[in-house]
Sequence to fold (269 residues):
Amino acid sequence: MMNTPTPYPDVNAVLDVLLPGVQAILGEHFIGLYLYGSLAGGDFDEQSDVDFVVVMDDEISTTLFSASDAMHQHIATLDSWCATQLEGTYISQAALRRFDPAQAWYTNIDRGRGERLKMTRYHEGWVAQCHILRERGITLAGPAPHTLIDPVSPHDLRQAMVAILHGWATHILHDPAKLNGRGGQSYTALSLCRILYTLHHGAVVSKPVAARWAQATLEARWTPLIERAWIGRQNPNLPASAEDVNGTLDFIRYALECVQSIETSVKEA
Fold:
């Protein structure tokens, strides 16, 4: 592994522990370790996840799962702000090739203190993550990611965004308490910008690019909400204002209306 896979020394120091740890545990089952998300997109900051994917030759065994979990617990104790920012997936080469809803259980760890390795069911939104990994992923070890993942079409990306809106976003409408914190509210508003961009363009861009596009393209009523969301993500532990909670709920409804309009146009075509 290169000593400087990213422009961030603190991130590189954690990765210098992660990579040899993963290789030692998985041994001959290890295929590759990759970064994606904001690190690959160029908009990483201290509020971002350190998104990674470990590719294996088969599903992870119970023994390897336990050893990997212990490794992540050790990494979380390192004296670094990003030691608890790791958020990643352990996945077989066959499962990574193309998203299959019938086989969507992967090993995952979320960022945050006290997080443990667990089995997680991925939904259609994983299609967009695979696209980012394939096209812009950073290789720490292993073959180039585009050799491991089939191309993702604009149609598939749009369908993934529709599924996210009908799933994740609709759940928030039924449980608005998820927006009470500034972190969750800002994340939701900025994610909606990315979703709407993909619906319009069939491509995936970073949160800053999507936010600027949304402010320049969507109705002016959303501009203040998006501006405050970008500022608010820097203070995720503060409470969100009632105005921004309600505004984000309205933004979700607007996005769902956009989907309905697109689906109607397709049916009429």
User: Anything to note?
Assistant: The chain has a mean pLDDT of 92. Residues 242-268 form the longest helix (27 residues). Residues 154-268 form one domain. Strands lie at 30-35, 50-56, 86-92, 105-109, 118-121, 138-141.
